[in-house]
What we know:
The protein is mainly α. Helix content is 68%, strand content 0%. The chain is elongated and about 70 Å long.
Amino acid sequence: MTEILISIFVLIGAFFSLLGSVGILRLPDVYGRIHAATKSATLGVISTMIGTFLYFLLFDGVFVGKLLLVILFVFLTAPVAAQIISRSAHRIGVPLWTESRTDELKATYPENYQELHRPTESPTEEESRGQT
């Protein structure tokens, strides 16, 4: 019975990791791809780690606290990293999918945000040497 439980966790982990990979390939924009990569891959890694933890606990009788720390670390860091990456992609102007209907983050920026954060033109070689 324990082998079946461990196998279920490992198979669920493999399925969600595969699902995340397919999502990265099939989704149309950066934001959807980030979502697929973090949500399903996080669940896949956590399920696989739970299966590994149960294997060592039930078959070898070893409590591996490091695996629990890995589960906690992945659970906390992956969604935060995805949020930071997608927010910075939005701030630098990575376009949404053409079929997207709303852009809720756009309302959080001031009206002249794009104007204020427009990349400046680099000086010519003469200007950088001080010759005008």
